[in-house]
Amino acid sequence: MMKSYRELSPSPRTIMTPGPVEVDPRVLRALSYPILGQFDPEFTALMNDTMEMLRSLFQTDNRWAYPIDGTSRSGIEAVLNSLIEPGDKVLVPIYGRFGNLLYEIAERCGAEVVALDKEWGEVFEPDEVIAAIGQEHPALVLMVHGETSTGRMQPLEAIGKACREQGILFVVDAVATIGGVPVETDAWCIDAVIGGTQKCLSVPSGMAPITYNDRAERKIAARKKVERGLLVPGDAVSGNRRPAIQSNYLDLSQLQDYWGPARLNHHTEMTSMLYGLREGLRILLVEGLEERFARHRRHEAALMAGLEAMGLTLYGNPACKLPVVTCVTIPEGVDGEAVRSMLLSSFGIEIASSFGVLKGKIWRIGTMGYSCSQKNVLHVLGALEAVLIRHGAALPAGEGLQAALAVYDA
Amino acid sequence: MMKSYRELSPSPRTIMTPGPVEVDPRVLRALSYPILGQFDPEFTALMNDTMEMLRSLFQTDNRWAYPIDGTSRSGIEAVLNSLIEPGDKVLVPIYGRFGNLLYEIAERCGAEVVALDKEWGEVFEPDEVIAAIGQEHPALVLMVHGETSTGRMQPLEAIGKACREQGILFVVDAVATIGGVPVETDAWCIDAVIGGTQKCLSVPSGMAPITYNDRAERKIAARKKVERGLLVPGDAVSGNRRPAIQSNYLDLSQLQDYWGPARLNHHTEMTSMLYGLREGLRILLVEGLEERFARHRRHEAALMAGLEAMGLTLYGNPACKLPVVTCVTIPEGVDGEAVRSMLLSSFGIEIASSFGVLKGKIWRIGTMGYSCSQKNVLHVLGALEAVLIRHGAALPAGEGLQAALAVYDA
């Protein structure tokens, strides 16, 4: 007798983590539309729309802006795999967990990786990075824009300009910031950027939008290798001058031939996810980038005011706070995981813990995309107060919500 | 003034390609449900359901059966990256385009790859492969089960048993066959299998279900490397004995720690795609594997009878025909692409062309998953007849549908 599985029926959640966050219902609807074949002209038109909208999102004139078919991490790996040749010297200034991930992936690409470490809760002074560049003469510099593990944001413009002057490729992980905070690819001289869908874009995890300029493309083109299965008798196997890209799935030289007019077969495009991404981008552009950034700032201010009025301490240097993630020090004597668990089970609210040295020390509350709303901010403040009181914390009851409401009234 | 983008409104299609095919409406509905956080206990329960259902699908008792977050190609690369160490000798018997892809990916993993080539339209006698194994003594043998480029299916059991006796890892690409044709992982002694979602499972492209046994796991475990960002002060960096897996995103040693009880953070699971995959698997198990395989055989028979009654010639050796793909020789003097184009524009039907040496020579018609239905088979036969007549082909009008209906009546 076959085991029968329960009907899918997910409980409604208020998701206030640094991602994944709640998905806009219009995006959920887009996911449910019947699919088109990947080479159907109607579908390739949707792919082209998506590229165009991504250029607006990334604030770039780059030719190449398209999603990698995988989670954000796949986008990072696609860019690093394609841009790092074995033996390349790579500088990675690290100020949190996701800087470590850049280091880790660069190492697996065969790079000679130099880490520059910064105490968690801070970011780098641009001059510190520029000095290290002068010492190390790397071929690439890799940095995280918004570090969700610590809730910090790194200023990039001065570093980008220094890299450009010295002919160094500057690669930025903007997974957490894209769509919530300005990411000015061209103005900041970034050669390749990786974004995420499941955070400020409020599209489910599953694609990683990237963009890269012609400086990056030249390095990729020199490593191009025609796939064995696509050679036609008479074709010469391409004699690539530089070491081939080690991944096939994440090979940008092949992917751009698929996203470009050649439409060379590679993977089977994720049709439903593409519907969702296109819809998420359309919604974002209808709202407007500036309006969207201002919305993220407004709800961040209300959340911070509420948390501080409750007597909680925010973690990290406020001068470099990431606007879309607020980190809260877990009060002495309170079991952080018990609080998270009760928030979820009693209030249907999810907030996040953190990683490594911050595990058990802070909570992380996201205000990203569709989750970044007055309703959600007020809901989390009220619930957190109740749960903390339930866990024996002494709080000025009622103050958190009043402080947040005052911000909204201002 | 911002450019405005058209509302998403895909035209209804009858998709009779070898994938992607039409998605079951229940799966589309599942995609549209609000998401859960990736570590929400409700969500991890859905992940566990999915693993259990995948074991039934793969007909295996393997502990590890879970999806890779990417298209089918990412599943292939994850398995090959994790199982092939640089310098490993790998035998790839090739009888179509997707065998070439296995070769290509194995080469990028640093393998010493030996190809065994077979004329397209045929498959290997198991003894040919076993003899090559005896000569080459590879560490791994990689084969495609169902080759959609030529519409052929390779018998695997004897090859699997020979590999097992000689301690060789046997890896099978069952992307095209899983859920439409029996794939008996354990009985056929396959060490690792990669399936596809967008074909006989009728879930959109975006995940690649895989399974592997403890023989494969031992090789993966020996290459395990703890990610830099997950080390806690005091942890020793793991001294892996064997060369580390070159991909981080597609590293099965990390992925199994995420899918297993440790739930170690890796990527952000594709929540909506997981809903879809779980629903697709649930539907498949409710239908029953045997019933589903029989359904695929029934509609294949009707389609073949209809095509032959129209006077068309089927391509390839019938003894090794892949039941879920029927290849048709494009009649002399007919422009294959003009026919495909009219089928799409006038009838909303998509059928496929082929690759490499078969480009312009054959059409490929899929009968997979939700697309594999009497309604669709009859629709494609009627439409193809009309379009061929419109293109000047001399056909016995009306015969195709009558022959197919006769099969359904039998």
TrEMBL record, chains A, B:
Cofactor(s) needed for function: pyridoxal 5'-phosphate
The UniProt record lists the keyword Chloroplast: no
One Pfam short name: Aminotran_5
GO terms (BP aspect): glycine biosynthetic process, by transamination of glyoxylate
Family matches, as InterPro entries: Aminotrans_V_dom, Aminotrans_V_PyrdxlP_BS, PyrdxlP-dep_Trfase, PyrdxlP-dep_Trfase_major, PyrdxlP-dep_Trfase_small, SP_NH2Trfase/AEP_transaminase
Residue ranges constituting the Aminotransferase class V domain according to the UniProt record: 39-353
PTM sites of type N6-(pyridoxal phosphate)lysine: K199
Annotated Gene3D superfamilies: Aspartate Aminotransferase, domain 1, Type I PLP-dependent aspartate aminotransferase-like (Major domain)
List of residues binding substrate: R364
KW Transferase (keyword) present: yes
Gene Ontology MF terms in the entry: alanine-glyoxylate transaminase activity; L-serine-pyruvate transaminase activity
Domain of life: Bacteria
Keywords in alphabetical order: Aminotransferase, Pyridoxal phosphate, Transferase
Protein family membership: Belongs to the class-V pyridoxal-phosphate-dependent aminotransferase family.
Protein name: (S)-ureidoglycine-glyoxylate aminotransferase
Native source organism of the sequence: Paenibacillus algorifonticola
